[in-house]
Amino acid sequence: MGDYSHDSLGMKLEMGSDLLRRQFDPTAHDLDANFRLTRFADLKGRGCKVPQDVLNKLVGSLQQDYTSHDDQFMHMTIPRIGIGLDCSVTPLRHGGLCLVQTTDFFYPIVDDPYMMGKIACANVLSDLYAMGVIECDNMLMLLAVSTKMTEKERDVVIPLIMRGFKDSALEAGTSVTGGQSVVNPWCTIGGVASTVCNPNDYIVPDNAVVGDVLVLTKPLGTQVAVNAHQWLEQPERWNRIKLVVSEEDVRKAYHRAMDSMARLNRTASRLMHKYNAHGATDITGFGLLGHAQTLASHQKNEVSFVIHNLPVIAKMAAVAKACGNMFQLLQGHSAETSGGLLICLPREQAAAYCKDIEKQEGYQAWIIGIVEKGNRTARIIDKPRVIEVPAKE
After folding, report:
1. Is the pTM here over 0.85, yes or no?
2. 3-class secondary structure for 266-298?
3. Which residue among 14, 138, 359, 378 is the one 20 to 30 A from 216 at the CA level?
C-alpha cells in the first residue's frame, strides 16, 4: 500500500485499545485541540458528488460497451450483472462460480479517524450485503493522504483510519491484503471488496412483486447530523438551527450517526435469505429516493415503490426544516453514508424480519412503504410520517 503499508505503520497501530475506543481527542495524540479531520475534505463548494442524471448518462454508455462483449459468456447460465446495480457479478470460467465485486471511497465526514476508517469499510461492504452476499473473501484499501496534513497529523491520523478499516473488515470475517496509497490535496478513504460464490449465494435485486413491502434497516439523517455537529463551531450556521435543537441534541445525533454508519449490514443481509427478500439496495449518496428509484427501474415486473414513512435520527428532521430546503431530507434526496438496506419483502414476512433483526442486533428496522402496480418508479407521498429515532445514550 505504498508508503503507508501495514508493516511500516505496525508500531504506530499498537497504541492501546483504550485510545481507539474512546471519543477522539486530538490533544491525547499531541495534536492541536482545533484539529478536525473533516477540514481535509474541504472542496470549496462541495461539488464532490456526480449528479444522478449525469451519472446515469455516463453509465449508459459504459453499459453498451459492457454488453457488446457478452458473447464470450453466452454459454454460461450465470447472468452478468454490473453497471447500475450495487455490485458487479461476473461468471468465472470454472465450476459455475461467479465473482462479486464492489468498490467505493469518499472524503472524511466525521472527525474521529478510527471511526472514519470503520465507516469507510462498512460502506464498501454494504454493496455486497445489498446483494445478499454475506461472506467477503478479500478487501483492498484505497487511501489518499492529504498534502495539507503536517507530518505529525499524518502519523497520528492515517494509522487510526487504517486500524478502523481493518477492525471493521475483521468484524465482517474478512481481511485487508493490499491496496493503494497516494498523496492528494484531500484525504480520501475507501476500498474494494471481492467474493467468489455460487449463484444461490446472492439475490438479484429485480424480483419485487405487487403486494411486497419496503423495509429500511438504518435511520436517515446522517448528513444532517454530521453537518449540524460541524456547525457547533460556526456561529453563523449554528444560529440558523439553535432554536429547534440543543447542543446536546446535536452531539447525541452525531454519535448516533457515527454508530449507525459504522454498523455492518451483514445481519440485515443474512436475514434477507431467511425471509425471502425479492431484492434490495443500500442507501448512500443519492439519498433514499434516489436509490429507491434506481432499484425500481431494474425490476422485471411492472411495479412502483411508494414510501410513506421516514425514520430519521432524532431532531434531524427539525434541523433540516430549519435550514430551508438545503438537505431535502423529507424529499428523500439528502445524502446518506453507509446507510441501511432498502429491502423488498413479502408482506407476510416483513414484520418477522424487523423483529428478528432487532432481536439479533438491538437495532430497529422499519416498514416504510409498499410495492404497487406501476411503471418502475419510486415516490414519497406528500406528507410522509416522520419517525423520530432516539439517540443511544
Report:
1. yes
2. HHHHHHHHHCCCCEEEECCCCHHHHHHHHHHHC
3. 138
Give the DSSP letter string of 223-267. Answer: HHHHHHHHHTT-HHHHHHHTTT--HHHHHHHHHHHHHHHHS-SHH
* Separation of alpha carbons 280 and 135, rounded Å: 17
pLDDT at 95: 83
Please choose, from the candidates 125, 157, 130, the residue with its C-alpha nearest in 3D space to the C-alpha of residue 9: 157
Confirm whether 121 is a catalytic residue: no
3-state secondary structure of 5: coil
Between vectors from CA 307 to CA 301 and to CA 312, what angle results, nearest 5°? 140
What does DSSP assign to residue 200?
A: G
**Cα 290 from Cα 333, distance rounded (Å):** 7
**H-helix or E-strand containing 302?**
none
* CA proximity to 260, closest of 291, 222, 310: 222
**Residue range 306-315, pLDDT digits in tens:** 999 999 999 9
Catalytic residue among 48, 87, 136, 354: 48
What H or E segment, with its residue span, contains residue 104? strand 98-106
